[in-house]
Amino acid sequence: MLAGKKPARAEGALPPYEPFIVRIIRMPNIPAQCRIRVAEYSEFRRALHAHLQARGLREAHIGAVLQGRLTGVCPVCQARLSLEYLEVLCGAGDPAGLAGPSVDAVARFADGRCINSACPSRDILLCWRP
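^ that's the sequence the OP posted. Answer follows.
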């Protein structure tokens, strides 16, 4: 294994965010955290939306349910990312009304890196607050 590189997930293994999704759906009133690779955020987002839709929640209401409860934090530099900011970074949100991310921040996030140009992190800590 190369220094600094994490091994690829074994084929058929659950993504690291799957237990986090299940937990926040089953126990929404209990805080939870999950550390994932920045590059996995879009996959996490799709999986979370799929789980919520499977429980009968319509896409139009998912944002309201997650608003203020799901945030991201860089585990190295402590940059805090609201759900709205994360949505804009991954191309799913509307930047209107937000002090939107810079072009550099969007490029870094798309490359799987922290939005802070001085930070080497490739991880993000997802936080769920009741």
